[in-house]
Design goal:
By secondary structure, this protein is an alpha+beta fold. The chain has helices at 3-15, 24-31, 42-58, 71-77, 95-104, 106-113; strands at residues 39-40, 84-92, 119-127, 130-139. The protein has a single domain, classed as 3-Layer(aba) Sandwich (Pathogenesis-related Protein p14a).
Length: 140
Amino acid sequence: MNSKNFWTFLFLAVGFSLAGEVSFPTLWSRAVPYAVSVTEDPAISSVCVLRAQELLNIGQLSHYDGGGLRVGSQMVGLGFQNGEWGEILGSGADVETVFLAWMKSPSHKALLQAAHWESFGWGVVKQNNVEVVVVRFWRP
């Protein structure tokens, strides 16, 4: 993928909520009041978009990448700071449907409501009628 196509893809994947869909940060801040104090990191969001595309390509959700690494090792390997990393994955008709499913799952809800995150990123990739959503959280 050349640079122009990558940035177009990134804009469409992260920014398509401008076309009427509710974005993850909007849903999260409505459901969890402290979420507005967590900084959205565009670099983390870029990685989330690429991870969502990877998951869509392989046709399954997994917290392990092709090399068997989990989110913390993946992010440090990409040059991000070490610390505590959290990740939530989902797929469904749209971001809101996925978010509502997370809020019904005790483990996902606990991760979303954990008040210690300092930054996060998110990405969505849509193909046909399925959206894959990846959210990653970080704290030192």
